[in-house]
Each structure stands twice: as structure tokens, then as C-alpha cells.
């Protein structure tokens, strides 16, 4: 038996010296396995060993290495999350909307999906709406927990969060998603967006202007520095009494234009708009600050810049305009 193994080993070694190196490496593995089999009493098969080549007549000329089986590729999930916040800048007390978008970009269904949304504590969560996923109310740390049992491949879910800025600084919203399913990568499972919260531009007027048609105005208006998110109210006494809401604000230095819509005119609901033009020329306001207005058409949503020279000075009261840097 030992002689028999020696002969086989000699023949195999002779063959391996005359074949390409890549084939020889695979064939060596094959023949080591063949030798182990012979040592245990097995018999070589003619088609596996010692076959005479059809053309050269050399032993082992037709021997081939065993085929390699390619590694199987298993589909995986790929959860991705994005956060979009608008506007990018707001004022203290201003509203911001955040859209948290979740997608499974993989081919495999994700199970046990959990999405955490964290809103910084310098904002108050006003409302939450979701599609394709279920969310709880915000806790004391402004965290939202959203879950779905499954999110199939190439399916989406969305959460919309409305918040109100409560203090100056940077308002950050972070979203993190996880699941119990193997994923292609975890690098896109977290996203965040920042909103700058600035001191508001503001216009406050408590002023009276005498004349043929006297004007008494009380106005309180604010907006973000570029006029976004305007808010406020007014009361005007001029040939009757009217009141309503601020629709736009444009502040430039000591000048401001403020658009309003009349909600009530002498007890009758109204829809007309007015545009107030004001200047703040320091204190005292009487004899220095100016006030004029016009309108009657639809309320404006975008206030124009100051269009002409200053109007008539007020007789009493004060107009205060703050233009945030």
C-alpha cells in the first residue's frame, strides 16, 4: 500500500510541474484530498486520476480542478432618514415645520422599525402628523417615538412636526432609525437639521395724529429679520373703528411697512387690507415719528419697502421700530 501511494504522489508531482500555476494550486488541493482518500483504503476513479490524454498520451493530461461555487448574495434592508426644516431662520415665538422622511432603499423587508425624533428644548412641539408609521406624543424631553412592525423594500414613511421657537440660539432636530433586520449600512440611519432662532424685527405704535381726519392707532407687529413668519394685531380709529391681524412686516433701519387684514369694522366682519407706513425718529415720538396708511384692496402677504418720503408727524404717543441685525 505504501508503495502504491508513493507511485501516485510521484506521478502527481510530475504533472503539477508542467501546468500553469493557478491550475497547479487548485490541483494540489485536489490531490492532497485524493491522497488522504487512498490512505484510508479508497480507490482512485479512472475519470479522476491517471486518465490518458486523448491527444498527448501523457498521464493526467485531462485532469481539471473542481469547480468553485460562487458565494450567495442575500438581499438586505437599507433604512435611510432625512430631516428638512423650513424656514432656516425664524424669530423667537416663530413657527418652524420639520419633515422627517424615512425610506427602505433595500430589497429586503425591515422589521421592528423604530424612529426617534428629538426636538431641542428651546422649542415647543405644536403638532405631529405621520404616514406609514405610528408616533407617540412628545415627552418632557421633546422626544417622539415612532414605530412600525414592517417597512417593505422601497417603501416610505413620513413624519411632519410643527414646532414653535421659544428662545434665541440654534434649534436642532435629530432623527435616528433602527430595526431588527440586517442592513447594508448604518451610516445613513441618522440625520439632523438646524434652525437659527433670532430676535424678531418689531414695530410697536401707540400714536395719535390730529387733522381733518384724526388717526388713533395701536399696533403690535413682529417678524423674523427678513419678514418671515409675521404676526401681530392692530386697532385703528379713523372714520369708525376697525381691528384685525398683521399679514406682513418689512423693517429697514428706522422705517417699517406693516400690512394688515381687517377682521372687524364697526362690528361687521371685513376682508380688506391696509398698509401702514411708519418711522421711528427717536424719543419723544410726538412731533418726530411719522404715520400714514392706505389700502382698501386685498391684504398683502409681502410688504413693499418704504415707497416715498416720510409722512405726517404724530401729535402724541410713540412709535418704536427695532431692526434686528
Structural class: mainly beta
Structural shape: elongated
Q: What share of the residues does DSSP label as strand, in percent?
A: over 45%
Cα(first) to Cα(last) distance is 98 Å
Main sheet attributes: strand count, strand direction, barrel closure: 9 strands, antiparallel
Radius of gyration: 40 Å
Low-confidence stretches: 1-5, 11-42, 46-61
* Assembly classification: single chain
Q: Averaging pLDDT over every residue, what do you get?
A: 82
Topology as H/E string? HHEEEEEEEEEEEEEEEEEEE
Which range best describes the helical content: under 10%, 10-25%, 25-40%, 40-55%, 55-70% or over 70%?
Answer: 10-25%
Number of helices: 2
Number of strands: 19
Q: How many domain modules?
A: 3
Give your account of this protein's structure.
With 325 residues, the protein is mostly beta strands. It folds into three domains: 1-69, no CATH class; 79-198, Immunoglobulin-like (Sandwich), CATH 2.60.40; 201-322. The chain has helices spanning 2-16, 21-39; strands at 79-86, 89-91, 95-104, 110-119, 123-131, 134-135, 143-151, 156-165, 169-178, 190-198, 201-209, 215-223, 231-237, 241-252, 255-265, 268-269, 272-279, 290-298, 316-322. The longest helix has 19 residues, at 21-39. The radius of gyration is 40 Å and the shape is elongated.
Amino acid at each position: 500500500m505504501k508503495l502504491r501511494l508513493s507511485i501516485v504522489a510521484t506521478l502527481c508531482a510530475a504533472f503539477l510541474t508542467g501546468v500553469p500555476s493557478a491550475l497547479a494550486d487548485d490541483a494540489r488541493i485536489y490531490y492532497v484530498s485524493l491522497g488522504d482518500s487512498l490512505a484510508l483504503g479508497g480507490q482512485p476513479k479512472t475519470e479522476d486520476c491517471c486518465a490518458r490524454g486523448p491527444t498527448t498520451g501523457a498521464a493526467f493530461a485531462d485532469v481539471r480542478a473542481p469547480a468553485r461555487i460562487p458565494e450567495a448574495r442575500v438581499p438586505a434592508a437599507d433604512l435611510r432618514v432625512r430631516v428638512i426644516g423650513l424656514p432656516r431662520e425664524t424669530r423667537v415665538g416663530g413657527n418652524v415645520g420639520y419633515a422627517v422622511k424615512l425610506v427602505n432603499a433595500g430589497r429586503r423587508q425591515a422589521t421592528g422599525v423604530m424612529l426617534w425624533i428629538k426636538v431641542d428644548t428651546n422649542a415647543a412641539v405644536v403638532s405631529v402628523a405621520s404616514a406609514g408609521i405610528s408616533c407617540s406624543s412628545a415627552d418632557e424631553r421633546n422626544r417622539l417615538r415612532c414605530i412600525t412592525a414592517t417597512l417593505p423594500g422601497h417603501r416610505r414613511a413620513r413624519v411632519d412636526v410643527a414646532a414653535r421657537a421659544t428662545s434665541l440660539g440654534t434649534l436642532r432636530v435629530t432623527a435616528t432609525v433602527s430595526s431588527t433586520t440586517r442592513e447594508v449600512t448604518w451610516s445613513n440611519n441618522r440625520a439632523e437639521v438646524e434652525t437659527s432662532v433670532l430676535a424678531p424685527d418689531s414695530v410697536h405704535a401707540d400714536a395719535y395724529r390730529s387733522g381733518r381726519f384724526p388717526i388713533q392707532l395701536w399696533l403690535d407687529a413682529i417678524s423674523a429679520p427678513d419678514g418671515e413668519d409675521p404676526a401681530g394685531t392692530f386697532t385703528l380709529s379713523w372714520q369708525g373703528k376697525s381691528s384685525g391681524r398683521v399679514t406682513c412686516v418689512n423693517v429697514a433701519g428706522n422705517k417699517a411697512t406693516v400690512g394688515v387684514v381687517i377682521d372687524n369694522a364697526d362690528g361687521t366682519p371685513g376682508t380688506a387690507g391696509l398698509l401702514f407706513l411708519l418711522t421711528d425718529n427717536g424719543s419723544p415720538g410726538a412731533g418726530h415719528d411719522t404715520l400714514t396708511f392706505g389700502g382698501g384692496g386685498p391684504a398683502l402677504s409681502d410688504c413693499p419697502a418704504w415707497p416715498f418720503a416720510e409722512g405726517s408727524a404724530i401729535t402724541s404717543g410713540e412709535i418704536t421700530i427695532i431692526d434686528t441685525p
